[in-house]
Amino acid sequence: MAGPDNYYRASLEPTAALPRLKGTHRTGVCIIGGGFTGLSAALHLAIGRARVTLIEAETIGFAASGRNGGQIHTGFRQTQEQLERWLGEVHTRDLWALGEEAKALVRELAATHQIDCSLKSGLVIAAHDPAAARELAEDTEYLRNHYGYDLARMMDAAGISASLGTNVYPAGRYDSGGGHLQPLAFARGLAQAAERAGAQLYEFTRAREIEASHSGVRVICDGAIIDAAQVIVACDAFTGDLLPALAPYIAHVESFITATEPLPDELYARVLPSDAAVADTRHVLDYYRKSEDRRMLFAGRESYFTVPSDIARLVRPRMAHVYPALKDVRIEYAWRGAVGITRTRMPHFGRLGERVLFAHGYSGQGVALANLGGKVLAEAAMGKPERFDILARVPAKRFPGGAALRKPLVSAGLLWFKLLDHF
Ligand SMILES: Cc1cc2nc3c(=O)[nH]c(=O)nc-3n(C[C@H](O)[C@H](O)[C@H](O)COP(=O)(O)OP(=O)(O)OC[C@H]3O[C@@H](n4cnc5c(N)ncnc54)[C@H](O)[C@@H]3O)c2cc1C
Known about the structure:
Elements: H1 7-11, E1 23-32, H2 36-47, E2 52-55, E3 71-72, H3 80-87, H4 89-112, E4 120-127, H5 130-147, E5 152-155, H6 157-164, E6 171-180, H7 183-197, E7 200-202, E8 207-213, E9 216-221, E10 224-233, H8 239-242, E11 251-260, H9 265-270, E12 277-280, E13 287-290, E14 296-303, H10 311-322, E15 331-341, E16 348-352, E17 356-360, H11 366-381, H12 386-392, H13 403-421
Parallel strand pairs: 1-2, 1-10, 2-7, 4-12, 10-17
Antiparallel strand pairs: 3-6, 4-6, 5-6, 8-9, 9-10, 11-14, 11-15, 12-13, 13-14, 16-17
Helix pairs in contact: 2-7, 2-11, 3-4, 4-11, 11-12
This protein binds flavin-adenine dinucleotide.
Flavin-adenine dinucleotide binds at residues 32-38, 55-58, 62-65, 67-71, 73, 206-207, 234-238, 242, 255, 257, 287, 337-339, 360, 362, 364-368, 370.
């Protein structure tokens, strides 16, 4: 992964590295993974006075949590109507409440722990064609009538053009409950808050194996052993490498993001005047927003197998399609990240035995949901599993085939969705 090309990392002051764990260590809860899920779990456990140790294979926010689009979405990848048909109304309403709490939690954490992460309100879902516009309008109506959600409103072609400064969409939805933030700044802020609350955090400490031990669970790392009463696995796209039993449930796609040079005043005002985050309705979507220092952060295209040598070249045509005025601006940063996805596009929460908890596969909606995920994992580890169980009761489905087949199938699925986007 291209560390130095990640704009988020480049735009923050370097932080002192956390120590690498060495030798034998005993703790209450060992968390594996220093992204939003693991950091939020560590913070909430430490606030609850649990003894907690978090290990991260690389650096805090190294993977998805420090590279994503920073967009805070409402709900889940499946609509409430789809979820009701699948899971029934009671379960779906409980999930909705957790989804709403996830967005509030991000704002609350940023405020309480004074995390300077350029947090803003406003998310636009842009319909890419009239059929998508109808579906979006129906969903917006459904949320208002059945869930009392009145923070989202539809915009017609003129409305979305005024909001986004482009004419490519027939309609869209403005959601003031959604928003955006600088994700790596948020991850680092969570890490500092967790440390202040008493959690012990280590970087460059990769878990190699998890095994049962006489006192609980043993996590074996390169050069260190951790004996814990419980373990939380928060590795998202990489869970299957550590826990092969979970590999059939989690896959990933590579997503590509670029950051332009800071835009001159006239362009900055003309492009995306509402300053919302934007995601379109295509299966392989464009998503974008402006940064605090006046850049356009534009993401588009996905791939399973091949990583392009020139990400900017891949993404630029998408950006130029939406904003022809940006076609010649300099792209200063280009990077990629692995988006953990499940077959159902719902996050996968669960237990392996009595002492290992896990959560992964937020399927592109983890900025809010992974933070909530960490909180409910912490609750479950502290003996209050009720809210964790609401998420764990969502049935997980295996991707068909073994490891060898899974990749081609996800790849073929992606190709199929790309084709659909053109019709
Ligand atoms: C390019 C991109 C764009 C995205 N855009 C958005 C968006 O706009 N909105 C949204 O809601 N979601 C988005 N997502 C998804 C969102 O970023 C993720 O759902 C979320 O960050 C997952 O957090 P996590 O903590 O579960 O996983 P991660 O952030 O991936 O953290 C897992 C951590 O575990 C560590 N790890 C792995 N294996 C081991 C091991 N064996 N030992 C120790 N540590 C280990 C990794 O190094 C990593 O730091 C995007 C994702 C990507 C990649």
